[in-house]
Amino acid sequence: MTVDKHCSRSVPWVDRNPDGWLKSYLKRCDKDADGRLGKQELKQVFQNLGSKFPGWRAWRALCYADSDGDGYIRSEDEHNLLVRYCIENGFAIE
To answer: What is the rounded CA–CA span in Å between residue 43 and residue 35?
Structure first.
């Protein structure tokens, strides 16, 4: 297993505001730098955040946050919904 230096297992806990560090973290996890997060990238995000079922969690996150139904989190509104989903499901520090 290789370590991706842009989306590491060590989550940056510098910002005590969950919105801030989550937004920053999610943007860094866009592995192919196409400006959108797909299911595989989200699966890696949730695996790094400690989810027991990262594939299922990625699917649920897409159902929650992908408002235009294109299969990706790309707009600012969709990123905000994804951050809200993470916070509501315990993937953020309080």
So the answer is: 17
Structure-token pair, residue 82: 């994804």
Its pTM surpasses 0.85: no
Six token digits for residue 74: 């790309």
Residuewise pLDDT in 10s, the chain (94 residues): 444 445 554 444 444 566 788 888 888 899 888 999 999 999 999 999 999 999 999 999 999 999 999 999 999 999 999 999 999 998 875 4
Question: How far apart are the C-alpha atoms of 19 and 30, rounded to whole Å?
Answer: 17
DSSP of 69-85:
-SSSB-SHHHHHHHHHH
Quick one: how far is CA 69 from the chain centroid?
17
